[in-house]
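re: ur question from earlier - yeah i can do the single chain one, its not a big deal. heres the input i used so u can compare w yours
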Amino acid sequence: MPTVAKIATVQNIYKISMAKKEEKIVIYRAKSGDIKVSTHFVDETIWLTQQELSTLFDIDRTVITKHLNNIFKTGELEEKSNVHFLHIANSDKPVKMYNLDAIISVGYRVNSKKATDFRVWATTTLRNYLTKGYVINQKQLETVRKNFLEARQLLLLIGEKAKSELLQGHEKDLLDLVGEYAKTLELLEEYDQGDIKISKSKNPVKFEISYDGALELVGRLKENLARLKLNVYFFGTENGEKLRSIIGAVNQTFGGEDLYQGVATKAANLFYLVIKDHPFTDGNKRIASVLFLYFLGNNSFLYKKSGENKITNSTLAVLALLVAASDPKEKETIVSLVIKLLEEF
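and the output i got, formated as tokens:
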């Protein structure tokens, strides 16, 4: 269904009977996009010239004139109350205009798909706006509702996990995490309102992590820890075939397409699975964090456009603890949190 593309208020631009009033401009765009008409909103209705009617219904102006004459001649509408001469910008004299009732009457006489589309729009979306002063954007309303429920679920989860032994002493880090998450919701809202223009692509994966590559990285990490005189006897020792299974799951395809699409989604699931599935006897959280950063770095996804890290070291550490303390049924909430922290909507 065609929708109101934009509703804006412009003060003191147009004049009606030489008296200054406020006029709203309603821009109508057809489904096909090839018809776009700016209408003049005055006295709780909209007004169009004959030329604008011709553009709207994509027919010759002489046909519009004939239909209007018949409408007034037969008494279907009274000409006096449905036609006004209005002063508009860039016009030296008043311009003859026709209101919504006249526009719709012409639309019923025009046998075209364009006219049908406009009638549907005018009798639903536009009528609601004229009578109620607003039109509900169901898609945006549903997005707000989804974000609210998601935020509520996440806050309840963090509040509950803050009591766990693993996260004791990390209260400030948890608050910082909530703050970072709130910024993503604010950014998403600005994107929906058109205040920012950021690519919403899935960020295609250029680099896939492999089982052998992951093991090599774990080996280098173990060597570095050993140089620091840390106990690494059990660190990075594989627990069966779990790591191979995790890498396979993250890289899995179906019908030639990745099951986990996009860098952020793959990275978040890799991070979560390495921590929760315990593919190593010791060091799962540290290894998960390193593999996570390694994967993001090789996909040029570590930094924001401003040059800042998308996820700071302290945020990553508290995320690892949050994953470790979480219940498997909370996976979707945790993974969604990581994805939102990474993505620029």
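DSSP finds 13 helices and eight strands in the chain. not sure if urs matches, ping me
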